[in-house]
Amino acid sequence: MKNKKSRNTQGMRQWKKFKRNKMAVIALIVLGILIFASAFAPLLTSYDPEAISLTERTLAPSKTHLLGTDKVGRDVFTRLLYGGRISILIGLTGALGGAIIGAALGCLGGYFGGLLDRFLLRLSELFTTFPQTILVLILVAFMGQGVWNLFIVFWCTGWMGTYRMTRAKILSLREETYVLACQAFGISNRSIMFRHILPNAAGPVIVNITLSTAGYVLQESALSFLGLGVPSSTPTWGNIFNAAKALDVVQAYPWLWLAPGIAISLFVLSVNIIGDGLRDALDPNQ
Amino acid sequence: MKDDIILQVENLHTGFLVDNVPLEAVSGVSFSLKAGRVLGVVGESGCGKSVTAHSIMQLLPKYGRITEGSITYTRATGEKIEIQKLRRTGNQMRQIRGKEISMIFQDPMSSLNPVYPIGDQIAENIREHEKVTKREALDRARKLLEDLEIPSAAERLGDYPHQFSGGMKQRVMIAIAMACNPRILIADEPTTALDVTIQAQIIALMKKLQREHGTSIMMITHNMGLVAEMADEIAVMYMGRIVEYGSIRQVMKSPAHPYTQGLLKAVPVLGMKKDRLYSIKGSTPSLVDRPAGCEFASRCEYATEACRQVPRAVEVEPGHQVRCWNYKEATDNG
Amino acid sequence: MADVILELQDVQKYYPIVKGAFHQVVGHVKAVDGVSLTLNRGETLGLVGESGCGKTTLGKCIVGLHEATGGKILYTLNDEKRDLLSMNKKERFAMKRRIQMVFQDPYSSLNPSQTILQAFDEPMQIHGIGKTRTERIERIAQLLETVQLPADYMNRFPHEFSGGQRQRICIARAMCVNPETLVCDEPVSALDVSIQAQILNLMKDLQQEKNLTYVFIAHDLSVVEFMSDWVAVMYLGRVVEYARASELYRRPSHPYTQALLSAVPIPDVDVKKDQIILEGDVPSPAHPPRGCRFHPRCWKCQERCKCEDPALSELKDAQGHCVACFYPD
Fold this sequence. Notes:
The structure holds three protein chains of three kinds.
Chain A: H1 4-19, H2 22-39, H3 41-44, H4 76-112, H5 114-129, H6 132-143, H7 147-173, H8 177-184, H9 189-225, H10 237-242, H11 247-252, H12 254-282
Helix pairs in contact in A: 1-12, 2-4, 2-12, 4-5, 4-7, 4-9, 4-12, 5-7, 6-7, 7-9, 9-12
Chain B: E1 5-18, E2 21-34, E3 38-42, H1 49-57, E4 64-74, E5 80-82, H2 91-96, E6 101-104, H3 108-111, H4 118-129, H5 134-147, H6 153-156, H7 166-178, E7 184-188, H8 196-213, E8 216-221, H9 224-230, E9 233-238, E10 241-247, H10 248-253, H11 258-266, E11 314-317, E12 320-322, H12 327-333
Parallel strand pairs in B: 3-8, 3-9, 6-7, 7-8
Antiparallel strand pairs in B: 1-2, 1-4, 4-5, 9-10, 10-12, 11-12
Helix pairs in contact in B: 4-5, 4-7, 7-8
Chain C: E1 4-19, E2 24-40, E3 44-48, H1 55-63, E4 70-77, E5 80-83, H2 89-95, E6 99-102, H3 116-126, H4 133-146, H5 163-175, E7 181-185, H6 193-210, E8 213-218, H7 221-227, E9 230-235, E10 238-244, H8 245-250, H9 255-263, H10 303-307, E11 313-314, E12 322-323
Parallel strand pairs in C: 3-8, 3-9, 6-7, 7-8
Antiparallel strand pairs in C: 1-2, 1-4, 4-5, 9-10, 10-12, 11-12
């Protein structure tokens, strides 16, 4: 609370800069609608996402079923909304977790250097070379399919990018004179690292989070498509898409794959554009 | 006498587009550079001295443009060329730039390409402008380095920039600039990044080259001492205008503009034994909100009502011009 | 009797040069190699020399930003001389209140993402200055006023200020813990000429007002002459000449000092002096020359200079004027 006023002014300045970027504002609105619709899914649709209705199989979009129904008669619009909940959650949590681990390790390594830094660098190389699909297979074999598998996989394999970026940024920021000034006052290393240096490195980290959020939504679809992700009964954008993999579906029932496809594309695109906007807005030197 | 003028800049205006707002960095600069003489251009950061030099070289960034005025270069043949009319990357400009007018920059560390040996870099400039074989060019490069008192020049031709110290790199830069024996050398803060003793070496060298080749030098600096040592004439710039212009003796001995007076009094001089320095109050206004009228008025001791109008250049004595309404009061008190 | 506040005894700062996969130490860069100096309370010691002479490293050793590898840095605390290098962590932290530093580059000395208030608040908090936030804000306002800036600037960000204003802010920030000694590392060399004068005057005023002791590091000899009571000229990690400022500038005795002084351009067309142009560059501090370190560039070099290293010793006819040369003028 104590620095509320000044933080606000800085926030305002960044928000103003962000607002100047028209594309980013549009993307933010699109993303807002997607998140809002998923969060309030029960208010927007009366169907049950998992209710099978054999009398209403593969219906084309109509007034009763806005985006039609799938091969077992589930309402696609409803599944899309409910699916968004899990897909976005997986994307965000995966990216945030990885980013937190990466940023923390990057800070430690970059600031202190020496043996710790060299160890972390080797560790990140080890993780980079570890094949993700095999890790998923192992986890699925031990724990069965589930959302948690994806979290663990994304956290374990997703921190290296942020780590490298944070480390590189900290290595250069560490040489800034204001860090020396802090040391001359005897300010603790922890405070220098997290209060003085990290905020100046936050721009690229946040951009990275948005980019990997988009990436994880795609990966979730891919893994679910391979049957390694979320169980197919639970609706996610990947699973809905997954249901449309047969050739006859692709040709005859385009709404089954078009709808989730567009949802995923819109989400990924808007998140990326927001990331770009944030990068410009958060750069303290501009 | 008029024939002696090798470069004539008349009412030069150079502007930049920043966030689609046009800013004028140089507004109405006029001066002339005489053959074989040294003109010192003095001013603080942002006064437009480097922009003037870049305008002459047509090296302005993409969003920078000469909006008005003329830059007339007189060739050895007597042919007059209006530089501002040439295309930046056109043939004629490329012929002039580097061959007839060349430039050295402030930072020798970043002006050389780190991946080529310096011999190649010097030779390249020679071969760009003259039809010689690579061997001949390298031979000339070696001679140049010898002229610049670089020890064991022949062996050092194959060395890379990182193997040279700062002072040596600046010598190499001078060698590149002098490679085609240019008629005008523009030196933009050539010694600012160097230590005092190295600065003395470089300045001595530049004087020697100037004597031997009769090159005209336009020396851009913020250091009044260097100008006093090098220059024959001096132009003091403030916010894109020349506020005082004259021979070095006229300006240094009887500065008429309050800003020139302030600059001279504000620098501690060896052996001056003073307890306080004179200081010009405030700081240079930003180009974005350029004050109407005389730009220096807000910092000036002698400011009056008249200063709301932009002052015109008046002649104090022959060849000594000042852009100030109240220069008489300033000269009497200063 | 002068009141000695800081005494350096044979201070050394060696950096190991490491090579190979196992980081073996193959040699040392002797950035500061045996410097002994004393400094009185309320006076200014000027450290001059060219880049790489170790003046900044020495300054950082005094502030505690670098750990000196040898010698003693004695500081007078309540009439008792204490060695900074043998202090424990807590005592060292307390010393940060007494010795502060002003840095060269005002543009990178302030954190771009913090307001001035934030930049001042944390050091004051950790050193227990001003119990409440209101008290601290009041003090920051006062500090800004002493450097002639309006108090409401404290809610602004560094990018809103010019170089001169930033350097004022940096000076005020160093003052926020009420230090006795200020190590100023080239505080004006990044500033424009007209702004330099303002900052130098301000620093002189502050010194008188608060009886501050300055270690003033600069490469510009005229600025050092203006600021200092005592001047030490450094070359390759050593002090080559040390004297009262008036004495040193009147009668420079080490050839290097003479060369330095003669190299300074004077803004006066009538002064024509004999310049001593030194040959060559400063050698690398990793491989300093044998004997007198200045001998390869010295025009008075004798056989003796090539093998023997002259010690800093007082001139016979001038008290307190020390020179490290066998053949001083």
